[in-house]
Structures are given as C-alpha cells and as structure tokens.
C-alpha cells in the first residue's frame, strides 16, 4: 500500500461551502496511524461534512486531504483502504445480516476463503450470530448499528470513520463495541470517531479535536483538555462545554 510517513489522515485547509453556509472552514489535520481521533462538535458544527469529504462522498470546495496515504481525489483507490459507519448504515432491508456482510466483503475484496469465517466471528462478537439469517428489515436500531459496524470493519481497513458507533446500544453491547474498536486499532487500524457520547470518546481517544462552526478550535489529548477546565479536574463534557460556549476559551 502507498503510504505517506506515519500519518493516517492529513488535511490542509479543508473547506466546504453550501451556498452561503461555510460548513467546514479551513480544517487542518495530522492524525498518526493506529490511534483513535475523537471528533467532537455541537450539532451542525460540520463533523459529518468533514467525514464525507475524507471518505470521498463529497468533494471539498477547497483544501486537500490524504487518508491512508491516498488523496481524497482518488476515490476508487481510497475506498479499499477505509471503512465508514455513517449515521444510517447502508444496508439492504431485504438482506439477512449474513447476506449483507457477504455482499460487503465481496465489494471490499475480502479473500473469499476468509470472509465467511470473519463474518461469523464478528457477528458472534456483537451477539448477532443467532439473528444472522433474519432480514435486516426486522432488526432494531441497535442491531442495525452493530451490522453497520461489522460492515465498516470487515475488510480490516487502514482507517475507519465511525459516526456514533455506540448510539442506541445497550450497556453490554456498548462495552463490546468499545473493546472491538480498541482491538482493531491494536491490529493497525486508525479510528476517526465522531460522537456526542463523551465518556466513550474520553475512554477511546488518544487525541480529541473540537469543531465549532466549521473550525477546529481545540485539539489535544482528553487529559489535557480536561486540565483546561476551571478546576483542572473536570470531565471531557465540561471541557467541551467551555470550548464551545460563545465567547468562552477556544
Ligand atoms: N447538503 C447540504 N446542503 C446544505 N447545507 C448543508 C448540507 N449538508 C450540511 N449542511 C450544513 O452544513 C453545516 C454542517 O452540517 P453537518 O451535518 O456537517 O454537521 P454535524 O456537525 O455533523 O452535526 P450533527 O452533530 O447534528 O450531526 C450545517 O449548517 C448544515 O445545515
């Protein structure tokens, strides 16, 4: 695989406008491989738009980025290296989970000899093996989320983009998903994690970036962001509220 130094994601001046709206405004990123980057921001801050640019789903208005060493202009090459769990996972209602994942494995060119075994192991991990032959149309939101997560990780991507991976999951499933993400990172994947569930971000992220009105206004380890709170002993939530309060510290 083509690589550029040790960075999993680099971006320079990444900007997206929708008419008068500047959704993402000159974002620079330099995210090392095999780390978890927590991407925070209030509703409408530009997180999804940033992820859509980094996953080639929408082109930037200006700026450049490379993911896993591949330019975001090179969609066909890049998509083999990335996984994406969006807000609404792309699944066919009429497929069973097993059919959906076999289809995804085929598209992502997972070795056919390995695919079935990997699908079963991951379904078992997220406690979906018993439901694997039921149609996704009958699944709960949490079950869909888990299928979407397995689909995003199935091909061992170099970089995985996760939008609210634990949203709607029960505590045990949430814990399993956190462990799964940690293990995936230990085996070489970089995770770009967008979530409003701050304890999960605090637990997983090596670095947290806070987007506010399209701009990256803070970037540091969770511990260092917490040190910036009034008493220096707060939570990531307090740090987030300070950073994203109008006129507050940036
Ligand atoms: N296709 C679009 N056309 C016009 N405006 C858009 C489009 N997509 C996003 N926007 C605008 O861009 C801004 C950023 O939206 P985005 O969805 O990236 O935010 P977000 O940080 O992901 O929010 P949330 O936490 O609510 O999911 C918002 O003002 C939104 O209205």
UniProtKB/TrEMBL annotation:
It holds the Pfam family ABC_tran. Belongs to the ABC transporter superfamily. Residues 9-238 form the ABC transporter domain. The keyword Transport applies. GO terms for molecular function: ATP binding; ATP hydrolysis activity. Transmembrane segments: none annotated. This is ATP-binding cassette domain-containing protein. It comes from Halovenus carboxidivorans. Keywords: ATP-binding, Nucleotide-binding, Transport. The keyword Transport applies.
């Amino acid at each position: 695989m083509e690589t550029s130094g040790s960075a999993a994601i680099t971006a320079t001046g990444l900007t997206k406008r929708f008419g008068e709206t500047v959704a993402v405004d000159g974002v620079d990123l330099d995210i090392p491989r095999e780390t978890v980057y927590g991407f925070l921001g209030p509703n409408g801050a530009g997180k999804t738009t940033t992820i859509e640019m980094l996953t080639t789903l929408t082109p930037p208005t200006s700026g450049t980025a490379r993911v896993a060493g591949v330019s975001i202009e090179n969609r066909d090459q890049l998509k083999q290296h990335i996984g994406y769990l969006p807000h609404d996972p792309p699944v066919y209602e009429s497929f069973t989970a097993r059919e959906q994942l076999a289809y995804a494995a085929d598209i992502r060119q997972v070795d056919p000899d390995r695919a079935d075994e990997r699908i079963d192991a991951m379904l078992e991990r997220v406690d979906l093996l018993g439901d694997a032959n039921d149609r996704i149309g009958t699944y709960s939101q949490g079950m869909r989320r888990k299928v979407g997560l397995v689909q995003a990780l199935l091909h061992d991507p170099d970089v995985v983009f996760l939008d609210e991976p634990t949203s709607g999951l029960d505590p045990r499933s949430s814990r399993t998903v956190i462990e799964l993400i940690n293990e995936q990172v230990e085996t070489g994947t970089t995770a770009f994690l967008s979530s409003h569930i701050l304890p999960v971000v605090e637990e997983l992220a090596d670095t947290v970036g806070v987007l506010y009105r399209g701009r990256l206004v803070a970037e540091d380890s969770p511990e260092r962001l917490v040190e910036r709170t009034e008493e220096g002993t707060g939570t990531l939530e307090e740090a987030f509220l300070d950073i994203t309060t109008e006129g507050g510290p940036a």
